[in-house]
Amino acid sequence: MTGTTAGHVVVAPDKFRGSLTSPEVAAHVAAGLRSARREHVVLLPIADGGDGTVDAVVASGFTRLETHVTGPVGERVLAAYAVRDEPDGRVAVIELAEASGLRRLSEAAASAPLTATSRGTGELVAHAVRHGATRIVLGLGGSACTDGGAGMAQALGVRLLDAAGNDLPPGGAALRDLHAIDVSGRLRGFEVVVASDVDNPLLGPYGAAAVYGPQKGATPEDVAVLEAGLARLAAVAAHASGLPGAVEHSHGLPGVAEEGRAGRAMGVAGRPGAGAAGGVGFGALAFLHAEIRPGIGYLLDLLDFDRHVAGARLVITGEGSIDAQTLRGKAPVGVAAAAAAHGVPVVAVCGRRSVGDEELRAAGIEAAYALTDVESDVRRCMAEAGPLLERLAGRIAAAFLSP
């Protein structure tokens, strides 16, 4: 391999799930590089909108704030988000997993697919807006709920009512009883950008309930219940004043629900990303008039990646597992594409990898270095990821960075 001879090195990894946060990965790689050679290293931990997004942006200069909100099964949890003041207003980065994620479920409450709520995510949005945020960047991923963003909307003043005029209880199952939506009290004065790489629609065989419900403990019977609730939410939202049409060509609610279950829903429910995070993507589109942007691309813009990579000699990215999912546009491939625009080569670090060199190069990554290359015991790789990363960084320095 030919080493590069000018400029700095940008270290821009995602997290190693279950082992190291993205700032920790970046710090260990940088330590290994500096131990091997005197390198000017720029640390730029990254994320794609899923878990770890708040950690990544805080490491890049955002301020971390914390507040108590409602967890996915109703308990109070301490959740964080990040803010930064910009010339056009305050930006808040909110990670759904912080308030409404699977990792918030205790072992005793690990199976709550019908009642888990996104309410805490809405409470984080409300807290940020009341503390001056005018733009919300909402990262979706790792959700415990399949409620179509209903809980989030309720926390922001939207009323979801049954036929008797009562507010619905939490969870996706309760949406089957939805009769009317009142948006007159919704919190306003802010814009929302959803950072997500998920392209599933809300309904149908590729929708939120069918694809992601089982990951949250839903049985086939539960999936049918959740699908019916989400279809009802989409249908009623299509008729609610002040909301964009959730389903087009609707001529009576029952028919719309059937059409949704057949996967033919149009409008907001059928948009790519509406099914993200148990349908919270739909809730953001329908109730908050959000714009959905590709997660890694938007976060790289937010972190000013182009400025940091200009003039660099090498970019080191990575994530816990580099596999077929990585090649479909996850964080390392997004970094590689952004670096390629500047003509900067990219290598990756990971815990393990299951794709070949040719596939990596086709994705813009010249090489990938795995912890399993230096330690065959996977448990030790997890426990000793930091020191092993430093060893890998020494190998990268020898191969790609000229003296």
UniProtKB/TrEMBL annotation:
<keyword id="KW-0418">Kinase</keyword>
<dbReference type="GO" id="GO:0031388">
    <property type="term" value="P:organic acid phosphorylation"/>
</dbReference>
<keyword id="KW-0808">Transferase</keyword>
<comment type="similarity">
    <text>Belongs to the glycerate kinase type-1 family.</text>
</comment>
<dbReference type="InterPro" id="IPR004381">
    <property type="entry name" value="Glycerate_kinase"/>
</dbReference>
<dbReference type="GO" id="GO:0008887">
    <property type="term" value="F:glycerate kinase activity"/>
</dbReference>
<protein>
    <submittedName>
        <fullName>Glycerate kinase</fullName>
        <ecNumber>2.7.1.31</ecNumber>
    </submittedName>
</protein>
<dbReference type="InterPro" id="IPR018193">
    <property type="entry name" value="Glyc_kinase_flavodox-like_fold"/>
</dbReference>
<dbReference type="InterPro" id="IPR018197">
    <property type="entry name" value="Glycerate_kinase_RE-like"/>
</dbReference>
<dbReference type="Pfam" id="PF02595">
    <property type="entry name" value="Gly_kinase"/>
</dbReference>
<dbReference type="InterPro" id="IPR036129">
    <property type="entry name" value="Glycerate_kinase_sf"/>
</dbReference>
